[in-house]
Design goal:
mainly alpha, disordered C terminus, 11 helices, 3 strands, 58% helix, 3-stranded antiparallel β-sheet, Arc Repressor Mutant, subunit A
Length: 332
């Protein structure tokens, strides 16, 4: 066994330290243990060689059986259909080109009259079949394309006027709120209708830029290009969602009363985002909103009371002493 170890040590890679450590491990075993290790190694090597040799043979046999099965299937289909082309089309792995309308039309022409199939009218017929199979645009798609372009414009304007000075993350969040509203049953079903909801009313617009005169300044420059890019990314749903289904937001420097009736989700950039309550959250939200309204009503009453002028003091009226008159009784 020692001679065997010396032969192995000559061909082993690595430094001397590794070989010495391995040698100590080898010498620490008894002859019986060394023989068992050697036999295990030989068995593993024999198994590896056997697997390497047998696997190609098994694969070849399987491939042959598969080819024979395909040949039997083609023969059976041909016998049933009586047409070689139809038999090929019926195969599970038949190429899609076989079913191309142009190929089918050509076969039909050749079956009818092989001479006329080569004429110009037959060629025109086959060309029409070929063109009809590759047409990818339908006139009905024009309306969808126009709608998509309009929605992209509306979302781009919302991002530009609401968050053009924000980071990309902040702009994506604002755009996401709009698409979240489109999916919510409480809001319109299109981006433009959501963005311009209430824009005709001075106090009812959902997004302030639609009714405060901001749109008098037309979008332009690199910020407009970035807003268009962000809008396209959100419409195509290529962004990572970050607002937790928020449908509302406001700037960090304001505190509107309506946020008390919602659930806060995130703060991104200069905006704080909120969503509608769900389930048991509604009772807490209604309580918060009622308390907020009562508090603000009380504050307004105190403000009005403090600003009201003090009432003028009433003028004191002089009290004159009462005068008495005596009447003389007439003598009889």
């Amino acid at each position: 066994m020692l001679t065997f170890w010396k032969a192995i040590a000559r061909i082993l890679p690595g430094g001397g330290a590794q070989k010495r450590a391995l040698g100590r491990w080898w010498l620490s075993m008894s002859d019986h243990e060394q023989r068992r290790v050697v036999m295990r190694g030989v068995s593993v090597a024999v198994c590896a060689v056997a697997v390497t040799s047998v696997l190609p043979m098994i694969n070849g046999a399987y491939q042959g059986e598969r080819e024979e099965a395909d040949a039997r299937l083609r023969t059976t289909l041909f016998a049933e259909l009586g047409d070689g082309a139809e038999a090929i089309r019926a195969m599970p792995d038949a190429p899609s080109l076989i079913a191309h309308p142009w190929i089918v039309r050509l076969e039909q022409s050749l079956e009818r009259d092989s001479q006329s199939a080569l004429g110009r009218y037959a060629a025109l017929d086959r060309d029409r079949a070929a063109l009809s199979s590759v047409v990818s645009f339908d006139p009905a798609d024009l309306s969808s394309a126009e709608t998509l372009a309009e929605e992209h414009k509306c979302l781009s304007e919302a991002v530009y006027y609401e968050a053009r000075s924000e980071s990309t993350s902040g702009q994506l969040a604002v755009a996401e709120v709009i698409t979240n509203r489109v999916r919510d049953h409480r809001y319109p079903n299109s981006i433009c209708d959501v963005v311009y909801q209430g824009a005709t009313r001075t106090t009812g617009c959902q997004f302030t830029f639609t009714c405060d005169g901001s749109m008098a300044l037309r979008p332009r420059g690199t910020r407009w290009e970035k807003a268009q890019s962000v809008a396209a990314q959100v419409i195509l749903d290529l962004h990572e969602r970050r607002t937790a289904e928020a449908t509302h937001y406001h700037a960090t420097y304001v505190d509107p009363i309506w946020n008390s009736g919602l659930v806060r989700t995130q703060r991104i950039g200069a905006h704080i985002f909120y969503r509608f309550p769900q389930g048991r959250e509604w009772s807490d939200a209604r309580a918060r909103l009622a308390a907020r309204r009562a508090s603000e009503a009380a504050a307004r009453i105190q403000t009005v009371s403090a600003d009201a002028p003090a009432p003028a003091p009433k003028a004191l009226q002089a009290i004159e002493p009462a005068t008495t008159t005596t009447s003389a009784a007439a003598a009889p």
